[in-house]
Amino acid sequence: MPETVNRQMRLIARPEAGVTPELFELSETPLPEPGPGEFLVRVIYLSLDPAMRGWIAEAPGYQEPVPLGEVMIGFTLGEVTASNHPDYRAGDIVYGRQGWQEWAVSDGGNIERKVDPADGPLSAAMHVLGMTGLTAYLGLLEVGQPKAGDTVVVSTAAGAVGSTVGQIAKIKGCRTVGITGSGEKLRSCLEEFGYDAALDYKSERDLSGALGAACPDGVDVYFDNTGGEISDAVLQHINVGARIVVCGIIGIKGGLAATGPRPNRQLLMKRARMEGFLVLDHMDRLSEALGDLSAWVKDGRLKYREDIVDGLENAPTALIRLLAGGNKGKMLLRVGAEPAGSPASGEAVSFSPASA
Amino acid sequence: MPETVNRQMRLIARPEAGVTPELFELSETPLPEPGPGEFLVRVIYLSLDPAMRGWIAEAPGYQEPVPLGEVMIGFTLGEVTASNHPDYRAGDIVYGRQGWQEWAVSDGGNIERKVDPADGPLSAAMHVLGMTGLTAYLGLLEVGQPKAGDTVVVSTAAGAVGSTVGQIAKIKGCRTVGITGSGEKLRSCLEEFGYDAALDYKSERDLSGALGAACPDGVDVYFDNTGGEISDAVLQHINVGARIVVCGIIGIKGGLAATGPRPNRQLLMKRARMEGFLVLDHMDRLSEALGDLSAWVKDGRLKYREDIVDGLENAPTALIRLLAGGNKGKMLLRVGAEPAGSPASGEAVSFSPASA
After folding, report:
1. How far is CA B118 from the centre of its chain?
2. What is the pLDDT of residue B348?
3. What's the rounded mean pLDDT across residues A225-246?
4. Out of B258, B259, B264, closest to residue A252 by CB
5. Span B339-346, mean pLDDT?
6. Does B268 sit within 8 Å of A249, measured CB to CB?
7. How far is A202 from chain B (nearest CA, A)?
8. Between chains, do B246 and A267 touch, taking CB under 8 Å as contact?
9. Which of A129, A175, B52, B301 is at a distance of 20 to 30 A from A283, taking alpha carbons?
10. Which of B272, B276, B281 sits opposite A267 (nearest CB)?
């Protein structure tokens, strides 16, 4: 019996002290019908992201928040079930912005790309075979340009981007050194993501000294997800011709007024490069990048963590757990079943919460 | 009648308060004879450089100073007059380190390169057709990678390197904006070196505002000879994909402990690059670079200033004038005559002190 009802999760209030389940309300509407030039998408996975905290709040100067009473927004993976659009047909898997609902009609405007189910587990398209993996791959290889034998240092080394960077660098024959912020993450770096060495910057009294010991041949590539004092320490150990990929700045305190040691002298002495990276600038290499990432996921060389919760009704509590730091990997909501015959789910290569 | 005497200028005392003529002594020795594997060089030009102040002083932690009683060191252009060396023959013009003397025997170890007299005025091999020109050419084109229509900003814009960078950028079809430190240098930028706009940073109350007005389309390439506050101001105006060539750091106060605004956020937002440059890393392109520089000098598109003093006996007073900032261009001592048939001297394209 075909589905006749669409369940949706709407935002009905703005957070005061924090995010609570009462900010959202589950509602039911008739299943939408695609009009001319439209198609119907059945949502399979919904990505839960820290940025959602901002999307539901009224913060002056930022983007317009989700209007009250509307379906909550979010990135999704779905299956096209019916189509009047020449570029989409039933069975296509699409990554886009269908939001917190089980079904959605689209004219293609809120679809980012089609996903090839042969690339790997469908859920991986939400992270390691999606923007997270592409950021790691293209930032490291395009800007960092590692060569076999290079020493590659990564900050936020156990995070989604960082752990992928470290593993790709290892695949490319580099020595990898991870910088992370807890003993548990340090163990993940060494035991799960294959770093040759790892440091917990919060427990090091002399981070620069520890880095020097972990990088006896100096640093050739630094994938910088933080900036700030962590990066100041790494800069002291760069080699001639080093490449610093500036990918994130969460370690810089003080916003636009932040000051710190000037890097010019070291960049000049070492003829080194600091370069900002945004993945969207490199989409001409998307196909090549996804091909490599897919092969590495399939052969088990590229590991990732995901934390999957079932059922649209559990979206608010899953988001709240994510915002509290209680997730054990990329946080996903399974809104609907994967199509029959989909590749093995991520369990085969990912780390389940229980083993984390 | 062949020469039989070699005149030499020796260092006989170290500077106390400052450099004085009494630190040096002119002496005569018999003309040296090249032994097996050696050749005799007649010095034509001697380069006088600010670094000589350090070479004659005993400063702990720096390189060994010139020993007292020895011939003062310096970069020279000379003519081989007799040779027992398979790679050098009479008539060859050589750039090397023959020091403050009229004649020198060499085994080739202190020769940097042979100079082709067809490249341009011989004196130009000491600056615009030498390391100065190569620094400007290779730094701008290899690291800065300007495209026609780009806006190129240069600090120390009227200096030897900066003025050459500005002119090459103009030849490449860029809009050029020079930053300099006096009204006189500002006029040189506009009237002699062809900058589209120029700023005297010492007279601007709002350097960033003035830069914004001078660069209405933003900054694509910044050739940075200073670092420090000048560069902080330029960074505020860079475009997406901008290239910053870190070539000098004389504007950074405070040595290794110098602090300033962190550039990471701007580099990330603009996906821009800061890269240190040392000309010696790029010598594989020397021949191509000299070919272009030579062509531009000959057709008058690449202008330069030189300040030539005649006679080895005047080397100390010329050095003293240079150290006092009284020179009107690259300071050279003409130790001996150019060979008969040499290309027109620099006067045709350079600016004489009188017209400066």
Report:
1. 21
2. 38
3. 97
4. B264
5. 69
6. yes
7. 22
8. yes
9. A175
10. B276
Distance from CA of B307 to the nearest CA of A (A): 30
Token pair of B64 as six digits: 């060994």
- Say how far apart CA A174 and CA A168 lie, in whole Å: 9
**pLDDT band at residue A326 using 50, 70 and 90 as cut-offs:** confident
Q: Do A248 and B268 make contact, defined as CB atoms within 8 angstroms?
A: yes
N-to-C CA span, chain B: 40
Instruction: Mention every residue, 6+ apart, whose C-beta is less than 8 A from residue B259.
Output: A259, A260, A261, A262
Residues of B in contact with A270 (CB under 8 A): 276
Contacts of A259 in chain B (CB under 8 A): 259-262
Average pLDDT over residues A51-79: 88
Which value, to the nearest 10 degrees, does the dihedral of the CA atoms of residues A108, A111, A112, A115 take?
-100
Find, among B226, B232, B302, B301, the residue nearest to B265 by Cα: B232
The answer to whether B246 and B139 have CB atoms below 8 angstroms apart is: no
pLDDT of residue B345: 53
Task: Please report the pLDDT score of residue B64 as a whole number.
Answer: 84
DSSP H or E stretch at residue A288: helix A286-298
Instruction: Retrieve residue A315's tokens.
Output: 């979206």
**Cα B301 from Cα A78, distance rounded (Å):** 62
ipTM of the shown complex:
0.87
Chain B residues within 8 angstroms (CB to CB) of chain A: 224, 227-228, 231, 246-249, 252, 256-278, 281
**Whether A264 and B270 lie within 8 Å, measured CB to CB:** no
Structure-token pair, residue B104: 């020198």
Q: How far is A93 from chain B (nearest CA, A)?
A: 32
State what percent of residues in chain B have pLDDT above 70: 94
CA distance A177 to A157: 8
For residue B21 the two structure tokens come to 């003529």
Residues A73-84, mean pLDDT to the nearest whole number: 97
- DSSP 8-state secondary structure symbol assigned to residue A186: H
Q: Quick one: tokens of B246?
A: 């870190």
